[in-house]
Design brief:
Blueprint lengths: L6 H20 L3 H5 L1 E2 L10 H4 L7 H22 L1 H39 L3 H11 L5 H12 L4 H19 L2 E2 L3 H14 L4 E3 L6 E3 H18 L8 H20 L1 H4 L1
Antiparallel strand pairs: 1-2, 3-4
Helix pairs in contact: 1-4, 4-5, 4-9, 5-6, 5-8, 5-9, 5-11, 9-10, 9-11, 10-11
């Protein structure tokens, strides 16, 4: 059975759903303004660390995050209080955005090093190293270009074109963005797992009972795995999810040590 909805959970649901409707049907450019861009992008502004978590890519993205809040949020709010639940949600969301931006900056620096290596020695091998940083499955046009580069490594036109390709791909990284409240939700999930580890939850698929600690552990292990393998084809910001887990766990640990203010 679902618990009665609590004030902070209700307000967060209303705000997120309302903004999704506005961004989808009234102001389509709102998502582009509120999304979190790479910190080197000309579109980046610091307020995006807050606003990105109120935007969602599509209806399923919104539903999955809000359903998680609806399931786990009320009991958590009743236990730790509305102020701490809101603090948990906002700190994990903003913190996940900040840490994810640091992670993407580190990844971009790795790419820049590969590009610099290519510029110092414009070989097909170094070009392929750069491409592999973007994707394990390049599109047919790019595959054809790389094959032609392999056969004509000293062709001046190919060398110039390869620089254009790398510049275009790097710009695509800088102009990419992140939206969604997943970082905040993962903070709520880890808090629920730490405070109610033995609570029985009924999965939807398959419909079997499982203790909260095992469900949250499974989510955590998968998130770590996804960050480690770093699949270029995966457009999910797994590092932001991991950041939400870590920040949420740290907050709960701190609150549990401060018993007077926690209970």
């Amino acid at each position: 059975m679902f618990r009665p909805i609590t004030p902070i959970v209700k307000n967060l649901l209303i705000i997120n759903i309302a903004l999704f409707v506005v961004a989808t049907y009234v102001m389509p450019n709102l998502s582009a303004i509120f999304a979190l861009y790479h910190i080197q992008s000309p579109r980046f502004i610091p307020t995006q660390f807050l606003t990105y978590m109120f935007m969602h890519a599509d209806g399923w993205h919104l539903f999955s995050n809000m359903f998680g809040l609806f399931v786990f949020g009320p009991l958590l709010e009743e236990f730790i209080g509305p102020k701490k639940l809101l603090t948990l949600w906002m700190v994990c969301g903003v913190g996940a955005g900040v840490l994810y931006s640091g992670y993407t900056s580190f990844q971009t620096q790795k790419l820049d090093n590969l590009i610099a290596e290519f510029y110092s020695e414009q070989s097909p091998e170094n070009f392929r190293k750069c491409i592999r940083h973007f994707t394990d499955k390049p599109n047919p046009e790019l595959v054809e270009f790389m094959d032609y580069f392999d056969r004509n490594p000293d062709n001046e036109n190919i060398n110039r074109e390869s620089k254009v390709v790398l510049t275009t791909l790097r710009n695509s990284v800088l102009n990419g963005n992140m939206v969604g409240a997943s970082g905040a939700l993962f903070g709520v999930l880890i808090a629920f797992g730490m405070l109610f580890p033995n609570t029985q939850l009924l999965l939807l698929f398959p419909p079997i009972p499982v203790k909260a600690k095992y469900l949250i552990l499974a989510y955590s292990v998968y998130t770590v795995y996804a960050v480690i393998i770093d699949n270029p084809q995966d457009n999910v910001a797994h590092f932001a999810h991991l950041s939400g887990l870590v920040i949420g766990a740290g907050l709960v640990y701190y609150w549990k040590k401060s018993r007077k203010s926690f209970y």
